[in-house]
Amino acid sequence: MLSMAAMLMVSCAAPRKSNSGNPADVKYTLARNYYYVNDAGDPGSPMVTTRKTFDRMFGMAAVMGKDGEPTPIDFAHQFVIGIVLPLTNDHTEIIPGRLVAHGDTLTLHYTVKVSERNMSWTMRPMELIIIDRTHLPKVCRLQEDHR
């Protein structure tokens, strides 16, 4: 499945810097209860650093029950990375994996799981993570890993 770069939001700990130049894992938390605004167009960069840009691309989708509110994001101290795939009528789940810091680059690894094909409705698969702003990279990459 061909994917477009997009926003993935999760709150995260910062990447550990290594003097040896070796890659380091970055902890993150998934952002819940957001959706991608359909008329926002192609997201371009997977990284969002301002509330204004985020609000143009994502909407809140609160639901009833425990943990029904969208995950708060403080853009003064955090930024988000997102994955947004094209519209599809296949039930598609994005599963974030490792977030790796290497030099000035963060790479988010993820897999895509399709569980039902040719549904009677379409969806725009999306997942978001939040990361501590002190570790804002110069480059952010998305890497789809195949099972």
Describe this structure as you would to a colleague.
With 147 residues, this protein is mostly beta strands. Helix content is 5%, strand content 41%. The chain has one helix and eleven strands; from the N terminus they run βββββαββββββ. It has one helix spanning 51-57, and strands spanning 10-12, 24-25, 28-30, 34-36, 47-48, 58-60, 78-84, 91-102, 105-116, 126-132, 139-144. Strands 1-3-10-7-5 form a five-stranded antiparallel beta sheet. Strands 2-8-9-11 form a four-stranded mixed beta sheet, with no helix packed on it. A two-stranded antiparallel ribbon has the order 4-6. The longest helix has 7 residues, at 51-57. The protein is globular, with a radius of gyration of 15 Å.
In short:
With 147 residues, the protein is mainly beta.
Judged by helices, strands and strand pairing, the structural class is mainly beta
- Taken from the alpha-carbon principal axes, the silhouette is globular
Q: Low-confidence spans: pLDDT under 50, at least 5 residues? A: 1-20
Number of helices: 1
Radius of gyration: 15 Å
Helix percent band: under 10%
- N- to C-terminal distance: 13 Å
Order of the strands making up the biggest sheet:
1-3-10-7-5
Main β sheet profile: 5 strands, antiparallel
Instruction: Tell me what portion of residues adopts beta-strand conformation.
Output: 35-45%
Q: Tell how many strands the DSSP assignment holds.
A: 11
Offer a few descriptive terms.
single chain, 147 residues, mainly beta, five-stranded antiparallel β-sheet, four-stranded mixed β-sheet, 1 helix, disordered N terminus
